[in-house]
Every structure is written in structure tokens, then in C-alpha cells.
Amino acid sequence: MKLIVGIDIGNATTESTLAQVDGEKVQVLSSGIVKTTGIKGTKENIKGVFKSLQKALENCGKTLEEVSLIRINEAAPVIGDVAMETITETIITESTMIGHNPSTPGGIGIGVGISLPIEDIKKDHVGVEVIALINKDVDFQVAARTINNLVKMGVNITGAIVQKDDAVLINNRLDRKIPIIDEVLHIEKVPVNMKTAIEVSEKGKVISMLSNPYGIATLFDLTPEETKMIMPLSRALIGNRSAVVIKTPKGDVKSKIIPAGELNITGESKKRSVRVDRGSKEIMSAIKACHPVNDIYGETGTNAGGMLEKVRVVMAQLTDQNVKNIKIQDLLAVDTFVPQKVVGGMAGEFAMENAIGVAAMVKADKLQMKMVASNLEEKLDIAVEVGGVEAEMAIIGSLTTPGTTKPLAILDMGAGSTDASIITKSGEISSCHLAGAGNMVTMLIDRELGLGDFDLAEDIKKYPLAKVESLFHIRHEDGSVQFFDTQLDPGIFARIVILKDGEMQPLEIDGNIEKIKNIRREAKKKVFVENGIRALVRISPTSNIRDIDYVVLVGGSALDFEIPQMITDSLAHYGIVAGRGNIRGVEGPRNAVATGLSLSYREG
Ligand SMILES: Nc1ncnc2c1ncn2[C@@H]1O[C@H](COP(=O)(O)OP(=O)(O)OP(=O)(O)O)[C@@H](O)[C@H]1O
Ligand SMILES: [Mg+2]
């Protein structure tokens, strides 16, 4: 009898499975899981391997001395990295919009009129609709009194734009309430004597007229051509509580397409080039056409070039190889939006710019894992061998899920890559590795919400949201309400929180629950539904996804509270039964590769 251990070094976690071998019989005793140390396939991994092994030993009361063999996954075939570039830029060449979100605008509703400094509004304007411009030298009491007098005189003041934070103060003193936008820093840039529209929505709501191109067209009598022109403007205003749009004679908001460059894909038999600004669909179909791909590189001197070269350089440094030897063998591109400061804005406006996110996968050198193995052997003084291919091991492990049998396909959804494999009735296994998995979802959430904080984005990905509506109740993101007997922390009152491990963690970000939830769900779909289908098509013996009947979902991302459901739904269209794995009936979707590594051991 002897003890062996299978260890799976992943991009994110290092998992181990300790087993007892008695002739033909391999019996699993325990498992361990820790964070991977260093980049997958480098000697920095050894620390994590040791810790993971230690955990597994602790879990069944054995010691390192009793272990006679360690089996690690072969060749760490893939390393993933992610990058993102914007491909549009919104530029205001004349002052035509103020889309900022002052914290306390005044009044509610829509006002349309001619923009005039309050001191210039006179008797001549009786019967005219006017939007008053109030600069910082005008006291709020004076402003309110002046507006009240003008209205009495018969001037129709329909709204106001204020430089200081005075909207509420002014509005409280008005006989007839109007929408007011304040904190407009550069009020001097607001063009005078131009048709202007203002919209302020109720607290907790967002504007609907000025964020809709046809809404703007209605207010300003625009032609279809003009409506097309203001499209980027209305898009930039989506999600705001208040906004101003001003029509100037040649007023212009331009959405400029940044020349993002081309991706060049070299396949074994085909070559394709595709412009990055054509979007993810065209990129993905070019990659499909070139399968199997030898390398992908971007046009030098462009964003696309920069994006892929960055991946290549990082990979070269981390794996101690020459940049020339780094080949990108798969790429997942997704369309996204990222908030960017508008060039030429008046109040620090942000626009959601189009962007492309990519996950790239690099084939690691086969020798790398051998090196890790020999390093490990030296350090621990235990025999170490490189066991089977990751995806093959994953399927052997997955077959321990109760209720599964051959033929079977699996999707291993990790941090850096989505791997798929299939085993036929007679036991033949084929597999593939695709770029893009959990890390990419996290990056998309991070960028689209403008967080700049990977760990926070990771939490937003993993946990559901709620809004603390009173000190005794919260509203979950699905609309249901939960009451509490004891008072909640006043510090989280009226905040959006993530429900993490029984705690409420407040989010310090703008935006409502719907928006955050949408971004989160879309990011998951864009990565995992796309990759799930791509992977299964590739491993299907007939290249037809419909010829696969059963799929087991494993890997850390299969723990997600919504990803498995999304994949199950999308695969149901093809008549495929899919569900989360439960390795050895106890591990859930975790530990598949490590389990496969120990179970596939044969003495001799
Ligand atoms: N509870 C959870 N909900 C959602 N995602 C999760 C959860 N736990 C872990 N993840 C995600 O799972 C991923 C890690 O999965 P896993 O440990 O299988 O990867 P890995 O095997 O180390 O990576 P790879 O297979 O790419 O080398 C991370 O992206 C992480 O965010
Ligand atoms: Mg993995």
C-alpha cells in the first residue's frame, strides 16, 4: 500500500488529491486547495504546491514522509491574459451638452427654452420660453426673487443652469418650480441665445427624454440626419439623473472611431486579417475560419498591436522565454463599453465608449512543467512525475460525479482558460483549450463599472446585490424584501451592498442595482456562453454540437451562482443536458483534474 497525490496547478488555484493505492485499487482519502503562487508553469508554483499538499495531508492525518509519489498536470498547456482597448472617443467640439450628475439638482421634469444670463432677461422676453443661466456671482436669494418677478411679468422661465451648488436653495424659493441643474463649473462656456433643453428626474430614477435620440429629436425638431448625429450625445447621457442639451448652429458632438488596427491570424492552412473596430463577431469568425491557429499578432503601432504585444511581453517575462517564441493560439474578443472622460466637456462628463476586450492564450513550453517537477522533487525529496494532460485528467475526475457515464463531455471553467474534453464510449478522449474564463469576466466588470479594483470586481462577480431600504429591511436584486429584527448598521443605510458570506458589504460606486446586475450578467454571458459553445463545437466528433448529449460543468467558475444556469439554458437549445459536476460526490465542481491525476495512476 502506498500514498500518492495528484496536484493540479491552475492559473488561480492549486488543488491536490491524496489517494491510497492498493494494487489496482486507488482510494481517495482527502483533498486540499490553496491559491496558486506565481504564474502557472513557473517555479514560483512550488510554494503553493507544498501548501496544497500540506492541506490534503492535514485533512486525513497523514504526513509528508508517507507520500511516495506526486503527479502534476502535464505541460500547463495554457496561460491566459486579458487586455482591453477603447475604439471610440466622444469629443465635444462646441458646447452642446452637459451630462453631468450634480448630487442635488432641483425640481423635476423637462424644460425647453432660449438660454439667457439671468441679468439679461427683460420685458422683451414676455411670452418667450427662457432657460436662465445663473453664474456664481448671483446670490441664490437674488436669483429666486428675480425669477419670481420675471414669471409674474409674463416671461416663461422653464428651467435654470447654475454654476454653484444652489439648485435646491433656489428652487425652494420659487413660486413655480422648474428643473434646475447646478454645479456647472464652466458656465461661461454655455452658449447664449440658443435653444436649450433641461431634464431632471426624480431621486433614484434616470432621465428618459434626453438619453433617447428620438426624445432629443422631438424637443429640437431634428431631421433624421441630425438625429443620427446626436446619437453619441444621447448615449453619453444614459443613466444620468439630470442633463442639459443645447442646440448650437454647428454644434457638434463627435464620436470618433480610433483606428484600432488589425489583427492578423495565421492558421495552419489559412490566414486572415480583421479590423478590431469591426467588433468581436467578425474577429471571432475569422479565428474560427483559421482553426487551428498558429499565432495571432496585431498591426504594429496600433492599439490592437499594443494590446497583443503587451500580452506577449508579459508572458515572455514570466516564463523566461524569448518574446519571439510566444505564440498566441487562441483569443476571445468581446464587445464592451467603458466610461471615459469626454474631451471638451463642461462639467467633467463621462461617456460610455465602445471597447474591445480580449483574452489571449499562450501555449507554454512543454519543458516548463518538467522543470517544475524536478524542482519539486529536489525540494521535497519525493518522486514527482508529470501525469496526464489537464483536460483528460479533468474528464476522468468528472466521471466520479454520481449519475454520469461515458460518453461524456466536460467544460472546465477556470480563471484563465475554458477547457473542454469528451470521452467516447470506448474511452477515447479528445480535448481543447480556449482563451477566456473567470478572469476575463472580472476584468469586464472592473472596466465597465470603472472600478480599477480587481478584488472588488471579483466580489461583485461572485455575490448577489441588495439595496438597504431602511434600517430594518433590504431589497434583494430580484425584488424580494427581507426584514430584520435588529437594526442594521446606519452606515449602510440607502446603500447598495453585496451579500458576501452573510455580511453586507457596501459599494462605493455610482449607479443603480439594475445597471450593476446587467453588467455582471452580460459579462458572464459574453465569456462563458460564447466559450462553452465554441469549445463543444470543437470537441464534438462530428463538429456538430447537437451530437453531444451530456455535459458536466467543473472548475471554479462552475461554482458561480448564475454561470451554470446560463450555460444550461443556452445548451438546452441544442438538446444537451448540462449541469454542475460533483466530483467523487463530495467536492462539487472542484478538484476534477487533481482527482483524475490520482485515479489514473497505474502501478508498474
Ligand atoms: N464562488 C464563486 N463564484 C464565482 N466564481 C468563482 C467562485 N469561486 C471561484 N470562482 C472563480 O473561479 C476561477 C478559478 O477557477 P479554478 O480554480 O478552477 O481555476 P484554475 O484551475 O486555477 O485556472 P485555469 O484552469 O484557468 O488554469 C476564478 O476566476 C474565480 O473568480
Ligand atoms: Mg483549472
From TrEMBL:
Where the record annotates domain DD-reactivating factor swiveling, the positions are: 92-253
Per the database record, which ranges form the Diol dehydratase reactivase ATPase-like domain? 274-601
Keywords carried by this UniProt record: ATP-binding, Magnesium, Metal-binding, Nucleotide-binding, Plasmid
Pfam assignment, any one: DDR
Reply yes or no: does the keyword Magnesium apply. Answer: yes
Query: What domain of life does the UniProt record list for this protein's source?
Result: Bacteria
A GO molecular function term, named singly, is: metal ion binding
**Where, if anywhere, are coiled coils annotated?**
none
Listed binding positions for ATP are: N11, A12, T13, E458, D459, I460, K461, G556, S557, R590
Where is Mg(2+) annotated to bind?
A: T104, D165, D182
**Protein name, entry field:** Glycerol dehydratase reactivation factor, large subunit
Task: Name its species.
Answer: Ilyobacter polytropus (strain ATCC 51220 / DSM 2926 / LMG 16218 / CuHBu1)
